[in-house]
Amino acid sequence: MTNTKKTIQGIPAKFDARELNRRQQQHKAAYQQTSQCCEIIRGAIPQQFLQAVSDKMATGYTLSKFPITMEILNYSAHLVKPPALQEVDIAIINNDVRDAYRAELEASHEDYKQRLYEQLVQAEESKQAAKAQTAKDKVYADLKRQADQTYSPLVFPEA
């Protein structure tokens, strides 16, 4: 059994507003550059599809960069949500990113606390083992002394 000494190094990460902002901006950019900022409009017949697109565009939606599907009985298009709806989505994304960052920091803190606890336990066990070994050695030395005192040295005549 090898007894490797555990030593924690470093400190747990602390809250950094710039890091949170960087993560939120990264997720916002992903939102705006993908179909996440869009709503898919579908219709089985051209008139139904075009009416749905027209209704959405009247409320502020715009055409996206994604292709429009014009297959028979399968008409669809991605329309970009209006800025007000995007802001709601981005606020939700920002809260989710903030919660994930918080959870990451809390997990880091818990990990450091657990590793410190293990280090302290290991140090205490080493101290206790050293004390026990010292006491054991003392008892054995005393027993050896008693054995040595019980018997006088062997006398063997010289020839």
Report what the structure shows:
The chain is α+β, with helices and mostly antiparallel strands and 159 residues long. The chain has one domain. 62% of the residues lie in helices and 11% in strands. It contains three helices and four strands, in the order αβαβββα. Strands 1, 2, 3 and 4 form a four-stranded antiparallel beta sheet that branches. The longest helix has 68 residues, at 83-150. The two termini are 53 Å apart.
Summarize the structure.
The chain is an alpha+beta fold and 159 residues long.
Essential attributes:
3 helices; 4 strands; 159 residues; alpha+beta; four-stranded antiparallel sheet
Extract low-pLDDT stretches.
none
Radius of gyration: 37 Å
In angstroms, what separates the terminal alpha carbons? 53 Å
The coarse silhouette is rod-shaped
Structural class: alpha+beta
What series of H and E elements makes up the topology? HEHEEEH
Helix content: 55-70%
Q: Tell me the β content.
A: 5-15%
- Summarize the main sheet: 4 strands, antiparallel
- Count helical runs: 3
Instruction: Give average pLDDT, whole number.
Output: 93
Structural domain tally: 1
Total strands: 4
